[in-house]
Write a structure and sequence with these properties.
single chain, 212 residues, mainly beta, 6-stranded antiparallel beta sheet, two-stranded antiparallel ribbon, 8 strands, elongated, disordered N terminus
C-alpha cells in the first residue's frame, strides 16, 4: 500500500478507539477489550454476588475465577456507632421469693471488623478480604471479658452488656482479575457494602434489668 494511502487510513483507526470508559470497567479494560489478548468469557452475565464470592476469602463463585484483590472505593465516612453485646447469660431471681439475690454477671465476647451489604445476596461476608478505606490496625478479632457481682431484686432478671464503638465506611467494591473476564480485567460492584471497624477504645458497660 502506498505510504500516503496508509496515512489517510490512520484517522479512521484512531477514531475507532474508545475516548472514555463506561461505568463498571477501567480505561485499561476498555482498551484491552478492543484487541483481546486471551482471557475468559462467562456463559452468563456476572452479578455482584459472583464478584463478592470471587474476592479473596470469599469461597469462590462457580461462574468466575478468583479475583486477585478487592478494594473499597467511592468511600463515604459514616458517623461512628456503638454496638452493645451481651456478656454471658441473664441471671434470674424468679423463684417467687421476696428477697434480693446476689449473682455474678458477665462473660466474654469477641470484637472484629464486620461487613454488610445494602442488598441481600444470601452469602456471608465473614472472611472476605476487601482492602481500602481506613487503617485496618484494629480489624483483628479481639476477646473482651468482664465479670461483676450484682444484686437482683425479686421478680427480676439482669444481664451485663458491653458497648463497642465502631468506625463506619460505605462504598462500592473494585474487583481486579489477573485474566480478562468478558474482555475486562477490572469490574465494579453496583451494590454497596458497609464496613464496621472497631475503634479499639474501652467498652461501655451497662446492666440491663427486666421482669421475669
Amino acid at each position: 500500500m502506498h505510504i500516503f494511502a496508509l496515512l489517510a487510513a490512520l484517522p479512521i483507526f484512531v477514531q475507532a478507539l474508545p475516548t472514555e470508559y463506561t461505568r463498571g470497567v477501567s480505561p485499561r479494560a476498555e482498551y484491552e477489550g478492543v484487541f483481546p489478548r486471551g482471557g475468559k468469557t462467562t456463559k452468563a452475565p456476572l452479578t455482584d454476588k459472583d464478584f463478592f464470592q470471587s474476592c479473596p476469602g470469599g469461597g469462590g463463585s462457580p461462574n468466575v475465577q478468583g479475583a486477585d484483590r478487592c478494594t473499597l472505593i467511592n468511600i463515604k465516612n459514616n458517623p461512628d456507632q456503638t454496638i452493645f453485646k451481651n456478656l454471658g447469660s441473664p441471671q434470674l431471681n424468679c423463684a417467687g421469693g421476696t428477697t434480693p439475690t446476689s449473682v455474678s454477671l458477665g462473660g466474654s465476647t469477641s470484637v472484629s471488623t464486620t461487613t454488610t451489604s445494602d442488598m441481600n445476596f444470601g452469602i456471608s461476608f465473614e472472611g472476605i478480604s476487601i482492602g481500602g478505606g481506613m487503617s485496618t490496625s484494629n480489624t483483628q478479632t479481639t476477646e473482651n471479658s468482664k465479670t461483676i457481682t450484682y444484686t437482683v431484686p425479686p421478680g427480676r432478671q439482669a444481664i451485663l452488656t458491653a458497648g463497642f464503638k465502631y468506625h463506619s465506611q460505605t462504598g462500592n467494591v473494585q474487583v481486579n482479575y489477573g485474566d480478562q473476564i468478558n474482555g475486562h480485567y477490572i469490574w465494579f460492584t453496583g451494590a454497596k457494602i458497609t464496613k464496621l471497624i472497631p475503634s479499639g477504645g474501652a467498652p461501655e458497660y451497662q446492666i440491663h434489668e427486666s421482669k421475669c
